[in-house]
Amino acid sequence: MGEKQSLGDGKLNGEQIKADLEDHVKLEAGEAAQCAGDQAPLDGQETLQPTRLYKRRWMIVLLFSSYSLCNSFQWIQYGIIGNIFMKFYNVDAFTIDWMSMIYMLTYIPLIFPVTWLLDKKGLRVIALVATALNCAGTWIKVASVRPNLFAVTFLGQFCCSFAQVFILGMPSRIASVWFGSEEVSTACSIGVFGNQLGIAIGFLVPPILVPNVDDMDELAHHISIMFYITAGVATFLFILVVFVFQEHPKLPPTQAQARARVISPEQYSYTASILRLLRNKPFILLIITYGLNVGCFYAVGTLLNRMIIMHYPGEEVNAGRIGLTIVIAGMVGSLICGIWLDKTKTYKQTTLAVYFMSLVGMIVYAATLSLGHLWVVFITAGSLGFFMTGYLPLGFEYAVELTYPESEGTSSGLLNCSAQVFGIIFTICQGKIIDHFGTLAGNIFLCVFLLIGTIMTGLIRSDLRRQNANLLAKAEAERQMSGQDYGATALISQPQTPLNSDQ
Fold it and tell me: Which is deepest, 92, 158, 194, 240, by most CB within 10 Å?
């Protein structure tokens, strides 16, 4: 079903949508069906709540992007110069691969308690824990710069991977809590942008700061400089979060957020929310397709150094630059896709098109990697990154549409959990295939799964619940302003034009 048809159905079936949303709120708030505080019961005669957009929202999302950047930088800082760390710590390639895969493995068991904590305690607590863990991990690494202290550097990487669990699910929540309905996709893209920029810097900076020298003392000095710089940035960002990061604006940005504030943490059932999501068939398909796409990206990023060095020996710096090209192109793709979604609301068409182009980009990259021309690899890798990395915010926002009014943190957490599972599987399998059959076979392996993901994306039924609710809200707002009763009252209301001002 296309978006236009879905939105049209929302207009024609307003009473059904209203009933579904009312049932959801009753499940969350109890059979009394009484809103918290001074809100009226759900009797179909709700009044619009005051809404407002604060300029501080841009500071909040940029601060989040900054500490997400610092954390994601460390995901790839070992893998992109894996041959150098293998020599320094005297470990094999598979062990160095785990310095990236620990980010994926840690996420899987911890995402459910962390998303529960996000729903119970809110954004500020999650931000504080994330930056504190990230800061601690960077200083542990500072103390690990000796060839016999690999276990210590692994502990530091584990702390940073633990911090990532508190980070990945936040972009869509921050966008919903702080931003208006016409800018949520753009705000989500900015949140994802920081994570991607961190990966880009992780590809670029380590090969520059840590050259491949044979003297162990000199090598230790270079590694120490990289770790100290990272620790200093992480500490500064932790202090900023303590003094600047705010839970939510005084007034909500949209009527949907005004309704979300009605449900207190004590009334919210995390288990019931998970069960409802797992019964949502379009969302289940999206979980699988998102995992396949992002898992392929994780595998390519983790094994990029190995693939480039295999065909272009001694090109560690260019391997980092190719990784940078992949992610920079992806950041451009993310922002373009976010703005496009805010303008058109064509979620399924855009997601399917970007997924298909990710497959095409992977095929072209696989076919050109071994040609012997690095400039060709730069171009094909950039094309791959534009679509594959650009897909990330699309998946987040499409999930929010399919699962509204469930918690954005929960839906994002399930998407990321799927990505980590497939990321570990693809990284291990592709690494073994490359070792035994070469890079072409390893990349064809990923192409097969991207093809499967493209087909499954086409099968997702585009049930845009948030957009349907906003259409009904607009009709209700017009009815209340004109004093006329159109016969159907929306449960969730879209905001009137908010004010831009400082808090």
Answer: 194
Q: What are phi and psi of 81, to 5 degrees?
A: -125, 45
State both tokens at 146: 């000796």
Q: Are 487 and 475 in contact (CB under 8 A)?
A: no
Answer for the pair 383, 364: CB distance below 8 angstroms, yes or no. yes
Question: Which DSSP letter does residue 254 get?
Answer: S
Res. 205: pLDDT tops 70: yes
Token look-up 């921050």 returns 174
How deeply is 317 buried, as exposed, middle or buried, from its count of CB atoms within 10 A (0-12, 13-18, 19+)? middle
Least confident of 35-44, 193-202, 301-310, 485-494: 35-44
Give the dihedral of Cα atoms 317, 322, 326, 331; nearest 10 deg.
50
**CA atoms of 94 and 90, how far apart (whole Å):** 12
What is the Cα 416 distance to its own chain's centre?
A: 7
What values do phi and psi take at 501, rounded to 5? -160, 165
Beta-carbon contacts of residue 443 (< 8 Å; ≥ 6 apart): 362, 365, 366, 369, 430
Phi (first) and psi of residue 43, to 5 degrees = -110, 10
Q: Give tens-digit pLDDT for 441-481.
A: 999 999 999 999 999 988 887 766 666 666 676 676 677 67
Residue 32 tokens, joined: 């009394």
Please choose, from the candidates 226, 222, 211, the residue with its C-alpha nearest in 3D space to the C-alpha of residue 76.
226
CA dist 230 and 237 (Å) reads 11
Backbone angles phi, psi at 53, to 5 degrees: -105, 130
List the beta bridge partners of residue 53: 500
**Helix, coil or strand: residue 53:** strand
If pLDDT is split at 50, 70 and 90, which confidence band does 232 have?
Answer: very high
Amino acid at 133: L
Cα separation, 172 vs 409, in Å, equals: 7
Q: What pLDDT is stored for residue 28 in this prediction?
A: 36
Q: How many residues does the chain have?
A: 503
Closest listed residue to residue 434, CA positions, set 322, 328, 312, 307: 307
Distance CA 298, CA 482 (A): 53
- Identify how many contiguous H helices and E strands the chain contains and give both numbers: 20, 2
Angle at the Cα of 427 from the Cα atoms of 386 and 101, rounded to 5 degrees: 95
What's the predicted TM-score (pTM) here? 0.68
- Dump pLDDT digits (tens) for 54-107: 777 888 888 898 999 999 999 889 988 888 999 999 998 889 889 988 988 898
Cα–Cα distance for residue pair 366/57, rounded to 1 Å: 41
